[in-house]
Design a protein that fits this description.
By secondary structure, the protein is an alpha+beta fold. A hairpin with a 2-residue loop joins strand 17 and strand 18.
Length: about 475
């Protein structure tokens, strides 16, 4: 690596403001906008992220959801995986620079790690002039605000064979010790005639269709299967520009997995059409995070607060007969501001009395626990509503991981995973604790899941069937 090469970013003054004052003000606005969209709580412990790379006035709010997490974590090192929009070199190239300059100052390259990586293929080094691209450099001002002391290793990802990607992923996984994170730079669907991708008209349904298309790709990425991700891009035609960096990230996350699985969480999503109002030309932006499951588990104090909140809600109803899931005092536990899927289960004399919830992380735990406690008590159509004369009610609260789309039943771990089945326009869900409660095998679990969905077990061999697994922290 060159020892004294300082690269002044050519995107200053074009893709973002060229003065320190204006750039700092814009970043502050993006941070505020991100918090208003996604909430204040930031789950610690992410190993990697996907961040968009358009001009900051377009993609910056979504990108800020990633960099607010980095601000809380203060990593020492960030591996930034981008690519060249004009066609790059094969393999993974590291530019021959030791620092980048933006209006906010200097971002230094981790020269020792860069030198270590380029010692063997598929990593190599190349002149900055042959690589320079906004996919990497648009991340720099965001990183400077979030973690100004962090060093970076810029990675320009070109074509990789599956074998080369696997080798690179193993080496990158070895670097992801505490204090080091990986950020893959990519926008999602580029829609419109200018992008030569217009699979549906620019009418009132275009935004919803873009959301559906991007969600399909995001779900495929959440599988952590590079093959499923790339197959989804081929099948849908979705114009995700940074598919090579994302593929490298997914392979790297698979390498970091042991018993502690990695789950993808969508931090934020938006299209440029929602910002500009122009449905004829739109680029989609997604902020994705990758957490080991243990990072998603609540601590002892938070578990106690969750159970206390559920019990207080139910006791208030039993004593007054009035449903007042909202209005309880705040728990005072910061992690209950986290958004997560949640199910509440009621038992009475050892028998199921009600169980309802949702898989989507649309509410904070503090709001979801009271609401779903009352739903389990009053709205489960399989049972008569709980009445004020009921006694001996026991409560379980299951805090869900994000759903993980899996290519087959082989990815399911009985007694560890729950599953959601979507097939033939129907769906069914079983929580992880159901299998050990009934002493089911994996095959018995899947027969019960199909029965609950109202479909035949043959649907598991249907390519249109979608199967998701998840884990749950059961608090009782």
């Amino acid at each position: 690596m060159a020892e004294s090469a300082m690269h002044a970013s050519p995107y200053s003054g074009t893709w973002y403001p060229g003065s320190p004052e204006a750039l700092s003000a814009l970043l502050e606005d993006l941070w505020r906008s991100s918090e208003s969209r996604t909430g204040s709580y930031l789950t610690p412990g992410a190993r990697a992220f996907v961040a968009p790379h358009a001009g900051l006035v377009y993609s910056g709010t979504v990108a800020a959801a990633v960099y607010r997490h980095l601000e809380a974590a203060q990593p020492e090192r960030v591996l930034v995986a981008g690519f060249s929009h004009r066609g790059g070199l094969p393999g993974i190239q590291i530019p021959e620079v030791d620092a980048y300059s933006t209006p906010l100052g200097t971002v230094r390259v981790d020269i020792p790690l860069a030198r270590k990586l380029v010692r063997s293929a598929p990593f190599g080094k190349a002149a900055e002039a042959d690589l320079c691209d906004h996919s990497v450099e648009i991340q720099l001002p965001l990183l400077q605000k979030a973690a100004p002391a962090a060093r970076i290793v810029p990675l320009y990802v070109g074509h990789l064979s599956p074998e080369a990607r696997s080798e690179a992923a193993k080496r990158l996984a070895d670097t992801l010790a505490p204090g080091t994170v990986l950020v893959a730079s990519s926008d999602f669907t580029h829609y419109g005639s200018g992008f030569r991708f217009k699979p549906f008209p620019a009418d009132g349904m275009a935004t919803a269709r873009l959301h559906d298309l991007d969600n399909e790709v995001i779900e495929a990425a959440g599988s952590l299967s590079v093959e499923m991700f790339l197959d989804t891009l081929r099948r849908t035609g979705a114009t995700v520009c940074g598919y090579d960096p994302i593929s490298l990230l997914l392979a790297t996350m698979r390498e970091t997995e042991g018993e502690d699985e990695v789950y993808q969480e969508t931090l934020d999503y938006q299209t440029s059409a929602e910002i500009t109002g122009d449905l004829h030309s739109s680029v989609s932006y997604a902020a994705l995070a990758y957490f080991p499951y243990r990072a998603l588990e609540l601590g002892v104090d938070a578990q106690a607060a969750v159970l206390r909140l559920a019990r207080q809600t139910l006791e208030a109803y039993l004593s007054t007969g009035r449903r007042r899931a909202a209005g309880l005092l705040p728990s005072g536990v910061p992690s209950l501001a986290r958004r997560a899927g949640l199910f509440v289960t009621l038992h009475q004399d050892g028998k199921l009395r009600g169980c309802l919830g949702r898989t989507e992380a649309i509410q904070s735990l503090e709001r979801a626990v009271p609401e779903l406690t009352m739903s389990a008590a009053l709205e489960d159509a399989r049972f008569e509503p709980v009445s004020t004369s009921d006694t001996g009610l026991e409560i379980d609260v299951s805090v869900l991981s994000p759903l993980k789309l899996v290519p087959s039943r082989d990815s399911f771990r009985v007694n560890t995973h729950g599953a959601l089945l979507r097939a033939k326009g129907r769906h069914g869900l079983l929580l992880p604790q159901v299998a050990p409660e009934w002493n089911w095998t994996s095959d018995e679990f899947f027969r019960a899941l199909a029965l609950k969905a109202g479909v035949k077990a043959e649907v598991y061999s249907d390519p249109a069937t979608r199967l998701y697994v998840f884990r749950a922290q059961v608090i009782r």
